[in-house]
Amino acid sequence: MIKQAIIPLAGLGTRLLPLTGVFAKELLPIHGKPGIEYILDECIEAGIKEVIFIISKKKEMIKKYFYNDKFYKKIIREKRDSRVIREYKKILKYKKIIKFVYQNKPLGTGDAVLKTKKLIKGKFFLMLLPDDLIIKKNCSKSMINIHNRYKSSVIASMNVKRKTVSRWGIFKLSNKLDKKNYLIKDVVEKPTIINAPSNKAVIGRYILPKNIFSKLSKQIPGKGGEIHITDAIQSLIYEGDKFVAHNFSGKYLDCGSMNGYIKSNLEIAKL
Ligand code: G1P
């Protein structure tokens, strides 16, 4: 059973400047609710019991958001506002399941994952990238079901426009397992259009095996000098590990870019 999830949150959020100049992008409201709460709700609904946040000193604000008890207690004592009480209870519910680790240098997603090594207990764990919101269907829940069915690692996948392949990790697929699931033959981080093996992109939901840590600890930096999770996954696939690409059914929203962020607000308002 998959009971732990990790969320890399140390990213600088430069694509959302100026909004992220002094503010953590994951706390920006999307239709009145911080983006990170959508991600937490997805985890909880998928049966996750512990969520590890990978933050940095610059992102301490995220920890403060969940550890603001004194302030809430004072307001509740003075005003007895039922809405504030409700919100505080929700935050307490989240706080109970969150643990924090630090990645103070932005060395890439792979490096962020490595910081959680000592805390991971099971053979597999879930990772969610907070820039990627998936609405209308719980993608993590579907992926856990697929993991249980195929006893494999799973990565969310979506067809993208060919001209945008250099923005994503891109899959080369082999056998079809069923209508929405394929075995992965290869995955390349942000290839050029010429080198891209397909237009099937990695979206930020992964069920990863614990043995990824030994790959990551030996891994040399890749594209842009960063340690990419994609490169570690590629090494495991080359060694014969089974990874399934799941063509998810929900709607993908890119909250990490300004246009995507604005669009996410509009889409969620329609729900
Ligand atoms: C990361 C991954 C990339 C994936 C993308 C999905 O890229 O490295 O493989 O396709 O998330 O959003 P980033 O958004 O950090 O550039």
Describe this structure in words.
There is one protein chain. The protein is an alpha/beta fold. The chain has a single domain, classed as Spore Coat Polysaccharide Biosynthesis Protein SpsA, Chain A. It is 34% helix and 27% strand. It is built from nine helices and 13 strands. The protein has helices at residues 35-45, 60-66, 69-79, 82-97, 109-114, 139-150, 212-218, 229-238, 258-270; strands at residues 4-8, 29-30, 33-34, 50-55, 98-102, 124-128, 132-135, 153-159, 169-178, 181-189, 200-209, 243-247, 251-254. The protein has a nine-stranded mixed beta sheet with strand order 5-4-1-6-11-8-12-10-9. A two-stranded antiparallel ribbon has the order 2-3. Helix 3 runs antiparallel to helix 4 (82-97). The structure holds 1-O-phosphono-alpha-D-glucopyranose. 1-O-phosphono-alpha-D-glucopyranose binds at residues 109, 129, 131-132, 168-169, 189, 201-204, 228, 230.
The CATH architecture is: Alpha-Beta Complex
State Rg: 19 Å
Mean pLDDT: 97
In spatial order, strands of the major sheet run 5-4-1-6-11-8-12-10-9
Based on Cα principal axes, name the global outline.
globular
Uncertain runs are none
How many helices in DSSP terms? 9
Query: In angstroms, what separates the terminal alpha carbons?
Result: 31 Å
The helix/strand class is alpha/beta
- The CATH superfamily label reads Spore Coat Polysaccharide Biosynthesis Protein SpsA, Chain A
Number of strands: 13
Order of helices and strands: EEEHEHHHEHEEHEEEEHHEEH
Q: Estimate what percentage of residues fall within beta strands.
A: 25-35%
Helix content: 25-40%
* CATH fold name: Spore Coat Polysaccharide Biosynthesis Protein SpsA, Chain A
- How many domains would you count in the coordinates? 1
